[in-house]
Design brief:
With about 625 residues, the chain is mainly alpha-helical. It has 25 helices and 7 strands. Helix 22 links the parallel strand 3 and strand 4. The longest helix is centred in the N-terminal third of the chain and has 34 residues.
Length: about 625
């Protein structure tokens, strides 16, 4: 009786503790929305992508096709095919459906979108706690969950009002990591390996960047097989079966049957199913050759290298563009003029300034510090079941930290990976403190040690950033915020007025970051949206606004059936480019000035007419109507 009562009591305590933690995170998220980003409580979203995401879900709930990835009103009049997949749409829709009993579709989807990322953050915390429990011990689960909230890259993606697929990818990453550690830790259990493969397959469904964690996990399995793993071959085979099954199922769910053979690198396609099949073939061959190779590490290394080269060669022969990454098919001009300037695709500033070093420490300092700790723990626990897990973390950190320095969007991965070794470090500190009890000072020392380990890099980085002044990254962010002072929600009333501009659907030329919100708040069409598949719309809009007005400009405006130009003077992508001359001191721009400057000074061509906007509803924009023959 006592033996069963104790586990039940523990389960109740865990459920209560996790529920309390979840409520605390939701409370913090609400406070953040109220005090820091109050606009999200007034119908605004944090990022342009969020409006397009909500619009997709609305369309789905209003009867749109699950299989239709197009945005017919962007890249007008041609339309645009998005590279996003459906898992996050499905989560937002599931959250909205119960609300439809009492609320319209738009409001229900908005509320679900407002909350989805904080909920995913809570689940990430729970998943990290599971990883720490398996590697460090049950006692440090709550410390680990608190540590997640100190990771800037993770929390930045999971604030209220930012329905973004990155928190979902991060959740699947931690779930896959936890399942993989259990798979490596325990003796061969097919369902654990199948579940691990399924988690990685689900991650690929959400986004192709999951290829990086997948490659690191496969590399860890190969290293363990080469030097130490009697059952790693069978585990790898079952893992690959789960991977193939999950990718195949995701492909069937994401695409209609007629599209199953589509070849795309930035969205789940037959390319990724073939790659998964090669992983399965690789591990199946390893398993068949184990008896012949024996336990000799050099012989196993040779076999692994030969089979790996064969798999890579097969991939290169069938889909050579695969190794160019998800953006391999992006227009090179777009890469250099726009995508290279998107913050997520940039790296940390490597200049030796105090602020630059501070940012690096705040985001990646802990991850960099625990790489040797992880590898040491892997060597120390070589005969224990946790060696594989620590090797996986150490190897992943060794790759993902430098990758994050080059591309900021990967920074959340090493932040999450660093938590388990940080908790191992904290466990050692707590053990030393316990070995020398000091009465009331002992809990204070534990609290100080915990605070130092969890928040130390963040605090040190913040101190250096404040001491070093404004960095280029902060300047870019401030410029982007300034651009968002142009409010689409304010000018939408004029754009929607019927009679008036809202009497029919019109094509609007605006800065690409405003495109998704214009689509969300009006029935009008746009050219530019901030997605790499819309190179045509982005570059056409750039050509019209950034160059002097000529016959080609007028032809482009007529071909694209542009009715209105909505211009935000502070839009960062329209700031003076290299080679631009200074603005005219009297405000009268000559005919050879870029069109965007002529819009700002009022010296516009005769076929553009300024549309007066009522005071308080202009949103900081300048609006012009086009009168060119079509």
């Amino acid at each position: 009786m006592t033996s069963t009562a104790a586990p039940r009591s523990q389960v109740r305590g865990t459920v209560f503790g996790y529920a309390l933690f979840a409520l605390a995170v939701l409370g913090i998220s609400g406070l953040l929305a109220w005090q820091v980003i109050p606009e999200v409580l007034e119908g605004e979203m944090v990022d342009p992508d969020n409006y397009m995401r909500l619009l997709r879900v609305e369309t789905l709930l209003e009867g749109g096709s699950w299989y239709d990835p197009t945005s017919p009103r962007s890249n007008a009049p041609l339309g645009e095919t998005l590279h996003w997949t459906r898992p996050l749409d499905a989560l937002i829709a599931l959250g909205a459906i119960p609300l439809l009993v009492a609320l319209p579709v738009r409001t229900a989807v908005y509320i679900s979108g407002l909350l989805v990322s904080p909920v995913l953050l809570i689940l990430i915390c729970f998943a990290v706690a599971g990883v720490v429990r398996d590697l460090v011990g049950d006692r440090f689960r709550y410390y680990a969950m608190i540590a997640v909230l100190a990771q800037l890259g993770v929390v930045g993606y999971a604030v209220p009002g930012r329905p973004d697929h990155h928190p979902l990818i991060l959740l699947l990453f931690v779930v896959g990591l936890g399942l993989g550690i259990r798979m490596l830790k325990d003796s061969l259990t097919p369902w654990k390996a199948l579940a691990t493969g399924a988690a990685f397959g689900a991650g690929l469904w959400v986004g192709p960047e999951f290829l990086v964690p997948l490659a690191l996990f496969v590399a860890t399995l190969v290293l363990l097989w080469t030097f130490d793993g009697e059952d790693t071959g069978p585990k790898g085979t079952w893992f690959a079966i789960g991977l193939v099954g999950a990718v195949g199922l995701a492909l069937a769910l994401e695409r209609p049957p007629g599209d199953w053979g589509a070849i795309e690198y930035d969205r789940l396609s037959a390319v990724h199913l073939w790659m998964s099949g090669l992983v399965l073939g690789f591990f199946a061959a390893l398993r068949r050759l184990e008896a012949r190779v024996g336990s000799s590490a050099p012989r196993r290394t040779g076999v692994a290298l030969a089979l790996g080269a064969a798999a890579v060669g097969a991939m290169a022969l069938t889909f050579p563009s695969f190794f160019g990454g998800p953006t391999v098919d992006v227009d090179p001009t777009l890469l250099s003029t726009w995508l290279a300037n998107v913050e997520e695709y940039q790296g940390f500033p490597l200049v030796a300034t105090m602020a630059g070093i501070g940012y690096l420490i705040a985001f990646l300092g802990a991850a960099l510090a625990v790489i040797p700790i992880s590898l040491w723990l892997a060597a120390r626990n070589r005969t224990a079941g946790t060696a594989g897990g620590w090797l996986l973390i150490g190897l992943s950190l060794s790759v993902l930290v430098p990758l994050s320095v080059l591309r900021f969007r990967f920074s959340a991965y090493p932040e999450l990976l660093a938590i388990a070794p940080l908790m191992a470090l904290l466990a050692g500190m707590h053990a030393r403190i316990a070995a020398r009890p000091t009465g009331l000072g002992t809990p204070l020392l534990r609290a100080a040690a915990s605070a130092a380990v969890i928040t130390g890099p963040l605090l040190l980085g913040g101190i250096l950033v404040n001491a070093g002044g404004v960095s280029p990254r902060v300047a870019r962010a401030a410029q982007a915020v300034a651009a968002r002072q142009c409010s689409v929600s304010q000018v939408a009333s004029t754009l929607n007025a019927d009679p008036g501009l809202g009497s029919r659907s019109r094509t609007i030329l605006a800065h690409l970051d405003f495109g998704p919100e214009i689509l969300y708040r009006t029935e009008h069409r746009v050219l530019g949206t901030p997605y790499h598949r819309n190179a045509d719309g982005i570059l056409t809009g750039r050509r019209i606004l950034r160059t002097p007005v000529d016959d080609e400009t007028r032809e482009l405006i007529s071909e694209r059936e542009i009715d209105l130009i909505l211009h935000c003077p502070d839009a960062p992508a329209l700031s003076p480019a290299p080679g631009d001359r200074a603005p005219a001191p009297d405000g009268a721009e000559p005919p050879d000035a870029p069109l965007y400057r002529r819009l700002e000074t009022g010296s516009v061509p005769a076929w553009l007419t300024r549309v007066p906007l009522p005071e308080g509803t202009d949103g900081g924009f300048l609006l012009f109507e086009v009168s060119l023959p079509r």
